[in-house]
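User: Sequence recovery, please. Input:
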């Protein structure tokens, strides 16, 4: 009986640790569109991979002022991100550590015609 109690205690104590290890590779995040344009495509692929992968939005778009949850393939934290706006403008960011953010907010500067992203 004491052996069972020790195993139960070990399982109870290690459960939070196991959750933290799993969350260390959690690259899921919210994309917030703070531009006046609709986001038509989002491509996210592991940094160093030659393959860009499919459009994670599929048939969905992200309207101005809206947010959308994105779930890239698990297992790594550092990704390249390419965002395409319906206005035919696109931008790519390389080496973004998605495990360190919860929200990526897009903004567009009309003066210099630059799409930028900030993190939270």
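Assistant: Recovered sequence (120 residues):
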């Amino acid at each position: 009986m004491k052996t069972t109690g020790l195993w139960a205690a070990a399982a109870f104590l290690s459960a939070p640790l196991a959750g933290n290890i799993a969350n260390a590779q959690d690259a899921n995040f919210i994309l917030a569109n703070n531009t006046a344009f609709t986001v038509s495509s989002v491509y996210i692929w592991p940094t160093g991979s030659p393959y860009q992968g499919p459009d994670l939005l599929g048939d969905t778009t992200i309207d101005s002022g809206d947010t959308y949850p994105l779930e890239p393939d698990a297992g790594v934290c550092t990704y390249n991100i390419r965002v395409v706006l319906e206005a035919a403008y696109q931008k790519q960011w390389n080496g973004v550590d998605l495990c360190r953010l919860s929200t990526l907010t897009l903004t567009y500067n009309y003066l210099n015609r630059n799409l930028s992203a900030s993190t939270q």
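The first strand starts at residue 29 and ends at 33.
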